């Protein structure tokens, strides 16, 4: 696990307010984060932030245009902050992106290469958004991949189920938080 990193993606205040269904998502994610730290696995946070005035948003991008209309993702807005229940600690890296994938419009690849990381453990909101987009791009970049399905969340439970049970296992190891914690626990 020395070359792994846990990615905590788009777990921002406004996004949690929209997606969290009261199922205990944040406590499970927090356990994964604590377990990664205990195992010496770097925790890298990824947030979506758009510049004021949204110069990077094309009207052809339906998702971002809708988010802008809803007042989401503007740099510096309180709702764009990482949710306080899983806030970064000193030494954690925070990467800002401008699109769906954690790699799009960010320096994530540079951070990973600089640390010699070749394996990613993916968590975040939404399963059908940042997790899917990042998984596809990371697969094309030849990373070893693990998805923690109960540390991912989507507003559509059926889409989440399909992705984590049918699609993601074709490309990544899909393992529950508790099982991953047992596998990564310091010996």
Automatic annotation (TrEMBL):
It comes from Streptomyces blastmyceticus. Keywords: Hydrolase. Pfam families: Isochorismatase. This is Cysteine hydrolase. The keyword Signal does not apply. GO terms for molecular function: hydrolase activity. Residues 4-179 form the Isochorismatase-like domain. InterPro entries: Isochorismatase-like_dom, Isochorismatase-like_hydrls, Isochorismatase-like_sf. It comes from the Bacteria. The keyword Hydrolase applies.
């Amino acid at each position: 696990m020395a070359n792994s990193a846990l990615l905590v993606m788009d777990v921002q205040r406004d996004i949690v307010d929209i997606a969290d269904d009261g199922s205990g998502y944040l406590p499970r994610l927090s356990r994964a984060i604590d377990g990664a730290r205990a195992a010496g696995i770097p925790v890298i946070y990824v947030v979506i932030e758009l510049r004021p005035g949204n110069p990077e948003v094309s009207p052809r991008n339906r998702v971002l245009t809708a988010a802008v209309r809803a007042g989401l993702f503007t740099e510096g807005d309180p709702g764009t902050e990482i949710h306080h229940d899983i806030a970064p600690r000193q030494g954690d890296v925070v990467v800002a992106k401008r699109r769906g994938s954690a790699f799009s419009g960010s320096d994530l690849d540079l951070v990973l290469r600089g640390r010699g990381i070749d394996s990613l453990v993916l968590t975040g909101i939404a399963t059908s958004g940042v997790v899917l987009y990042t998984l596809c791009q990371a697969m094309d970049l030849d990373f070893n991949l693990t998805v923690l399905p109960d540390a991912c969340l989507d507003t559509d439970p059926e889409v989440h189920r399909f992705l984590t049970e049918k699609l993601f296992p074709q490309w990544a190891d899909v393992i529950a938080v508790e099982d991953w914690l047992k596998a990564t626990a310091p010996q």
